[in-house]
């Protein structure tokens, strides 16, 4: 039984308690623009197909690289998820969802191609019937009682302000030199100067309070945030904002002055390329 449309996070399980083991995770990779598994990738799946009568639940998230339009990649990733789910022929509880493309960070040409190959994939979590107790997802506790509210993105064209002691509430700063590893909240080494510049400024201007705002690109309106490869959750914009928050905190900036929030792709830019929606902004909220 294939279920779609549920609020879908890469589920965290309450496992190790009571002697339970973690569910198994398997990643399958696809050729460019294909939703069919190659023979080599299909072979990785064969042991699980042979034991599918022992599987209780199957969760699948599929992705694309960043080539092609947003709508096309959503459809392709969904076909990838459904194709993998369809190989399991028994009446399992299956949740399969395509999440579209994963943005590729700015690297050398070879690194970009390697990242794209890694992003053409389906991540699976297999929950076995043989566990002593049924594993329960931490979120959502009850999808039927917690319907996901989908808000259409609102395109904006913000006016960015330069760093100065005259900043006032409502002014917005773009951390232009900040870049992350693809799908992660780890800053590239070349971005350390941008973090230092921001820290130095706010240390010198203790009267300013602010919110660190994370944004991502390349997801559709039904997806609240991009997938974070480290947390295995869809909270990438929040994780990146939190990274900046923690960095400034480590430099001695009082936590009472700072807030952080991830906005997913709620506010894509009206002008510019889709990749430019992947950004971190600082909004001045108060000036003492």
From TrEMBL:
Give the SUPFAM superfamilies listed for this entry: OmpA-like (SSF103088)
* Gene3D superfamilies xrefs: OmpA-like domain
Q: InterPro entries this protein is in? A: Bact_OuterMem_StrucFunc, OmpA-like, OmpA-like_sf
Please give the GO cellular component terms listed in this UniProt entry: membrane
Which keywords annotate this record?
Answer: Membrane
The OmpA-like domain is annotated at 17-130, 167-288
Q: What is this protein called?
A: OmpA-like domain-containing protein
Q: Which organism is it from?
A: Flavobacterium kingsejongi
């Amino acid at each position: 039984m294939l279920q779609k449309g549920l609020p879908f996070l890469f589920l965290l399980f309450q496992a190790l308690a009571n002697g339970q083991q973690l569910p198994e995770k398997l990643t399958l990779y696809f050729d460019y623009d294909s939703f069919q598994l190659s023979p080599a990738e299909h072979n990785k799946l064969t042991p699980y197909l042979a034991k599918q009568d022992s599987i209780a639940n199957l969760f699948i998230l599929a992705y694309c690289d960043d080539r092609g339009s947003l709508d096309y990649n959503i459809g392709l990733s969904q076909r990838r998820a459904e194709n993998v789910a369809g190989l399991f022929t028994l009446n399992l509880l299956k949740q399969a969802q395509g999440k579209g493309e994963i943005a590729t960070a700015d690297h050398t040409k070879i690194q970009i191609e390697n990242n794209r190959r890694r992003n053409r994939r389906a991540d699976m979590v297999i929950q076995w019937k043989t566990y002593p107790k049924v594993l329960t997802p931490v979120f959502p506790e009850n999808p039927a009682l917690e319907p996901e509210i989908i808000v259409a993105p609102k395109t904006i064209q913000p006016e960015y302000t330069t760093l100065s002691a005259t900043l006032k509430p409502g002014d917005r700063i773009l951390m232009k030199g900040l870049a992350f590893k693809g799908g992660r909240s780890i800053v590239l080494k070349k971005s350390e100067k941008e973090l230092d510049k921001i820290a130095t400024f706010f240390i010198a201007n203790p009267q300013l309070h602010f919110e660190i705002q994370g944004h991502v690109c390349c997801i559709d309106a039904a997806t609240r945030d991009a997938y974070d490869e480290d947390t295995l959750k869809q909270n990438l914009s929040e994780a990146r904002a939190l990274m900046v928050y923690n960095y400034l905190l480590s430099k001695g900036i009082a936590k009472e002055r700072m807030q952080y929030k991830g906005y997913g792709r709620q506010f894509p830019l009206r002008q510019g390329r889709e990749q430019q929606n992947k950004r971190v902004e600082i909004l001045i909220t108060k000036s003492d």
